[in-house]
């Protein structure tokens, strides 16, 4: 019997006050591999300078400056870079709806890339009221995705799996909103009308991650932001983001990132 491959399910936390996450690709200096993973978000990986080898499943795409790849929700993907490059990544959470987009080349590619570039420049400047401008540009880009790049119903594959991923997406969307609360697997299962064993299997099979690890990854994303942007104490950050106390938070933080949160905070 062929062994089923598993891939890490990532939690995508939008930028503060915005309905998306936008960032500079961390492998900008080259010789970097982002291993195969997936998440409940549509992702656009766009190369500004240099080249990058992008993989959707087993299919390889060589992206040069001015080109991008669209990754659908829960599509397995990875990035390999050998030389210096610069790329930007836009992640759009899609937990509450299933839409699929085609990355085939179109006349509008240049327009979509220009909107991404415009968003990236505004994010760097962060001038007064930039969030409003960012959202304005983002909705232009989203309109383009929906009207030009969205797949028609007859081209969607694996409908049954998409429905199940849609159910899991609603659950992960709920966790994104209630991550700071004390949410056990049993409580979550009761909220959505599942038995705990079935919900646990759903996370492992379709999310490729343990429920507890997924919830913790959301909490870490928010805690990192607090460490970087606020003067809150470690204890305050721990309690604010769903950790029982500062000791537990510090221990788990060191296990994940290799340093204590106090040291991370000092470096910021």
UniProtKB/TrEMBL annotation:
Residues 169-267 form the HTH araC/xylS-type domain. Keywords: DNA-binding, Transcription, Transcription regulation. One of its GO terms (molecular function) is sequence-specific DNA binding. PROSITE patterns: HTH_ARAC_FAMILY_2. InterPro entries: AraC-bd (IPR003313), Homeodomain-like_sf (IPR009057), HTH_AraC (IPR018060), RmlC-like_jellyroll (IPR014710), RmlC_Cupin_sf (IPR011051), Tscrpt_reg_AraC-type_HTH (IPR020449). Pfam families: AraC_binding, HTH_18. PANTHER family: ARAC-FAMILY TRANSCRIPTIONAL REGULATOR, HTH-TYPE TRANSCRIPTIONAL REGULATOR EXSA. This is Helix-turn-helix transcriptional regulator. It comes from Simiaoa sunii.
